[in-house]
Amino acid sequence: xxxxxxxxxxxxxxxxxxxxxxxGYESAKWLGKCPACNGWSTFVEEITDSRxxxxxxGKEPHxxxxxxKDIGTDEEERILTGSKELDRxxxxxxxxxxxxxxxxxPGIGKSTLLLQISSHxxxxxxxxxxxxxxxxxxxxxxxxxxxxxxxxxxxxxxETNIDAIEGIIMKESPDIVIIDSIxxxxxxxxxxAPGSVxxxxxxxxxxxxxxxxxxxxxxxxxxxxxxxAIAGPKVLEHMVDTVLYFEGERHASYRILRAVKxxxxxxxxxxxxxxxxxxxxxxxxxxxxxxxxxxxNTPGSVVSCSMEGTRPLLVEVQALVSFTNFGMPRxxxxxxxxxxxVMLMAVLEKRVGMQLISYDSYVNLxxxxxxxxxxLDLGIAAAIASSFRDKIIDSQMVVFGEIxxxxxIRGVSMAEKRVAECAKxxxxxxxxxxxxxxxxxxxxxxxxxxxxxxxxxxxxxIKN
Length: 464
Known about the structure:
alpha/beta; 3 domains; Ribosomal Protein S5, domain 2; nine-stranded mixed beta sheet; Rossmann fold; 13 helices
């Protein structure tokens, strides 16, 4: 008697696995804690296909190898979004055939910004398809009317099935497609719920194939986790060409758009927006924004200059040093690297002689922005020393420079642009590293001081 094992083989083609919804780690059994990202209760059971693809499938390749010298070097074609801040972050506009991922907290303005740029691009003759899995077409229409957008020719689709979306894209052949959001899109062949690791990975893979194969620019909106990272597997960020993050408090009016990955431009540029009744408005002079409402003649406040890409940005550094009645002093840093602040306080104790061991220290970077550039070291140290000594720093002075462990002031990049920005904003004096002073051109209306160490700098910065 012969037995047919075809039924058993077909049943063995699929298997159940447990996948971490935070990092994508796979396990044969359920785990309470993920060994990769240390997340608790993040494993969800999913069904996967265990069949291995055939190496010799016999299919014709989609492309053939090309000799390097025969490849053209013409600049990539870009589409201007109508927003100078967004174009700056993207490197000059949206590249044709690129895949862009936009992430941010709920309610921060991702959908608003994308609807605004869709209206502008559509008015310039480009065909836009806006696919929403979270809102109905009526809700999108109401939001467009509230923002007073002239987006009459914008194609709106409310759909979550990736196969149906792919069919509409191939039928309409738009120039740009917006998917809001990738966590709501699903593929029928996968049994897991929308937003799971498998669904997000497969949906993004399908969109990438459409984008590259048909030269269509696709913008994907992604949710973020409670830690602030894009939800889903890390491979999602590796698959796309550009990753943009919206930063800022949801209930605050200012938003910062930052590129953390960009294959077609710099990742150091930022865009600054202000949320108003009519949507997100560009802030052309962020330095003026960051210094608005700055206190004058108050200890613990100083202006420093940071570089975000090619843009100099003036920010206010505040510090509050107060005596503590407890044995363990408290250290708090907002918008600045905490470990950097602790190191600078140790330098002040060792090299300057400030006894900060019995004092609580709170350091804040105003404006809701986060900067980790070492050029802010001198500003942080000056603010702490000013608050500790209860001495005022001249409100018309700007300081910047990197501080080493021996107390030396080290040179920073693009010092000329920083000083030029200070002069443009009307500041009268600037304290910079002496290493940058020799290549500095004299500017009218601003006095420049070059310093070598922290003691020399504090003698100039803090009034007696």
